[in-house]
Specification:
By secondary structure, the chain is α/β, with parallel strands linked by helices. Helices cover 52% and strands 7% of the residues. The protein has helices at 10-13, 26-29, 34-41, 57-68, 82-99, 115-119, 122-127, 140-143, 146-149, 162-174, 189-199, 203-216, 229-236, 248-262, 266-278, 283-298, 304-319, 325-337, 343-358, 373-377, 417-440; strands spanning 47-50, 71-76, 103-108, 130-136, 153-156, 185-187, 225-227.
Length: 441
């Protein structure tokens, strides 16, 4: 076992020993990215690592320090105060004088330090005596004083992806030196899905549950253990939902959500939304479907719906789960209660059908652009009426090819905002008809 302490939690034992073993955060560690360059060059910089729990903030700090061959001091803002900072500063001075080694001070949950405690770092970070790496799950803009922010670089860590977590489980189950390899454990696909869904992108949470499940799994006669769904349920104290993201239940539930929204039932929409989220559905998938719904089923009856959909997507990407899921609920209720119209959807489908049926019909000459003399001589733009030169900015000129002249695609309803659009279009047609008649007389 090479001296591995198996009394330590799995998450602690599996901490990466080098950057090649580090899983996730490719936007920071990919080729040419900041942290990759710092690591390869053995350099260190003052950083604030902002991200959800279990995304590798502490591991990153340790790896960077190890590569830079610096002294590493780690403490939690919950348990330490200004006195501890002063002791670190004194040790850093001695280390620099005696060994010419830099000192890295890693502060976990740095947002818990008050202003006075954060101020204590300033002169020493500025002088370069200590390199500060702070870890926080809270927005640094609100929790870290501006003077300290200006002396550090804020890096955003993201929740681990499904692929990241699958790779982590594979390593944990096969690594005999640091992981669970000596237990000869494997995990069935559905149990793996449930384990990953329940982790919320938190590696520590995932590994804690996996270690408990591997211990609970009964060994077979050959000593091998298979981790089943019920073992994972017991480990995480949560039942697996009957939900297959790629099968019939997936389509049944998304259909139920759509029809609840279309039938203006916010209660039904909230329930089916909650069912899918609890079953482990990707919130971004649900947001994409609701944004599509805003275009197809709400349309211009309530133009705000589409903007709210995009805003909800931005909100979720900013907050993540579970906090960001409230934006999905907000959007679902709004869509359910919004006036409905599929007029734009139908109009666009009819326009697409004509485009396919008639092929590349030429653009009428009077609405072509004429940037050159040759094009003007050929009649491009001839007879075009500039709308702003006319009463109400309305002109009686055709914008469709002759083969489609008079075609009306968009027919707004009397619901919501479309009622005003319908009134405008009717008034426009009457005005144009009057102008056409006056011009012919």
């Amino acid at each position: 076992m090479n001296g591995t302490n198996f009394f330590e939690p799995l998450a602690q034992r599996l901490r990466p020993r080098n950057l090649d073993e580090y899983i996730g955060q490719k936007h920071l560690l990919g080729p040419g990215k900041l942290l990759r360059l710092l690591y390869e060059q053995g350099r260190i910089a003052s950083l604030i690592l902002w991200g959800p729990p279990g995304t590798g903030k502490t591991s990153l700090a340790r790896l960077l320090t190890q590569k830079a061959e610096a002294d590493y001091v780690e403490f939690s803002a919950v348990l330490s105060g200004i006195k501890d900072v002063r002791e670190v500063v004194e040790k850093a001075k001695k280390s620099r004088q005696a060994l010419s080694k830099p000192t890295v001070l890693f502060v976990d949950e740095i947002h818990r330090f008050n202003k006075a405690q954060q101020d204590a770092f300033l002169p020493h970070v500025e002088s370069g005596l200590i390199t500060l790496i702070g870890a926080t799950t809270e927005n640094p803009s609100f929790e870290i004083i501006s003077a300290l922010l200006s002396r550090t670089r804020v890096l955003v860590l993201e929740p681990l992806t499904i692929n990241d977590l699958e790779a982590l489980v594979e390593r944990a189950l096969t690594d005999c030196e640091q992981g669970l390899g000596i237990l000869k454990a494997s995990i069935e696909p559905k149990a793996l899905d449930l384990l990953i869904q329940s982790s919320g992108g938190d590696a520590r949470s995932l590994l804690n549950a996996l270690e408990l499940a591997a211990t609970l799994a009964k060994p077979e006669a050959d000593g091998e253990r298979l981790i089943l769904v019920n073992t994972i349920e017991e480990s995480i104290q949560r039942k697996a939902w009957r939900y297959d993201k790629g099968g019939e239940e997936h389509y049944n539930l998304i259909s139920a959500l759509h029809k609840s929204l279309r039938d203006s039932d916010p209660d039904g929409a909230l329930y089916w939304l909650a069912r899918m989220l609890e079953g482990g559905e990707d919130p971004v998938f649900l947001l994409r479907r609701m944004i599509r719904f805003a275009s197809e089923d709400v349309g211009l009856a309530d133009p705000l719906s589409l903007m709210l959909g995009v805003s909800a997507l931005d909100s979720y990407r900013l907050l993540g789960s579970p906090e960001g899921e409230l934006a999905l609920a907000h959007l679902a209720v709004h869509l359910a209660c919004a006036p409905k119209s599929n007029a734009v959807y139908k109009a666009f489908n009819q326009a697409v059908a004509d485009a396919k049926k008639y092929g590349p019909l030429p653009v009428p000459h009077h609405i072509r652009n004429a940037p050159t003399k040759l094009m003007k001589d050929l009649g491009y733009g001839r007879g075009y009426q500039y709308a702003h030169d006319h009463e109400d900015a309305l002109v009686a000129q055709e914008h469709l090819p002759p083969e489609l002249s008079g075609r009306i695609y968009y027919q707004p309803t009397d619901r919501g905002r479309e009622k005003a659009i319908k009134e405008f279009m009717e008034a426009r047609r009457k005005s144009l008809a009057r102008k056409t008649k006056e011009r012919s007389e």
